[in-house]
Amino acid sequence: MKIFKTINHNPDLSIALGYFDGVHLAHQKLISCAVDFARENSKKSAVITFETNPSNYFNKEKIHNISSNEERLERIEALGVDYAYVLDFEQYMQYEALKYLQDVLVKNFQPCCIVTGFNHRFGRGKEGDTKLLSKYSSHFKYKYIELPPQKIQTCLISSSNIREMITNGHIRNANLLLGHSFSLKNNVVKGDAIARKLGFPTANIFWPNNIVNLPHGVYFGYAIVDKTYPAIINWGKRPTFDENEEEVVEAHILNFDSQIYGKIIRVLFVMKIREEIKFPSQEALIKQIEEDVETAKKLSRLS
Length: 303
What we know:
Blueprint: E1 2-4, E2 13-17, H1 25-40, E3 44-50, H2 69-78, E4 83-87, H3 97-109, E5 113-117, H4 130-135, E6 143-147, E7 151-152, E8 155-156, H5 159-167, H6 171-178, E9 182-187, H7 194-197, E10 203-205, E11 217-224, E12 228-236, E13 248-253, E14 264-274, H8 282-302
Helix pairs in contact: 5-6
């Protein structure tokens, strides 16, 4: 997949429009519609998206993302997209909706197909919508596909719902809507080696500032280093040792004991095992971690 940061002339594309935070199941279906149309008609496919979340220009409170731009693009590429345009939203936010359609999308891409979600809005003041895209489809000679609401049972698959689930600690439900595990990727940093002295060395990473937070606690998940390993993941402040400790993600990776300081790893959160608590002694903490490890082993055999 070729990635562009600016518009160029690239005609006859089947394009998917959206920010696609998290690239959840509904996003995957939407993007796949554009890819399938392209392949069926011997065309190329593209995603037109933005570097920053447009919602942050319209909401008083900052919206934290579900995934980094890097992960977002990796997941988009995995769906078979040929081109991704990751644009500066501020350059386009003042376009009238019809002008954006005509002077940006049609002029540069002459799209053979445009695919959006049912609630897609665009243009100055979010004045453009699915009705406008449908209305002008014959005039500008593109097929328009509107993806209807996608649900699991009665729950709408949406980035806002997933973000709320993560914030409230409902990680398994969030992952169900995502179609993959919520994850973080960052450099491994040196800690104070307390976990190693206890017999459970950890790979420590900081939570990226722009990613939505899970509640503190101990989670079962996976760590991807050179390959994927089951892991016990503590996210919090380690209250047993220092209540003023800065927040950190500590992954005790099972069946792994290599030095990886400075390397980039991805940590995947699958389910919460227990709350983060202050133990009366190191011995009590060690006993609990031993139980956590056994829980992780059982869960990894089931997954």
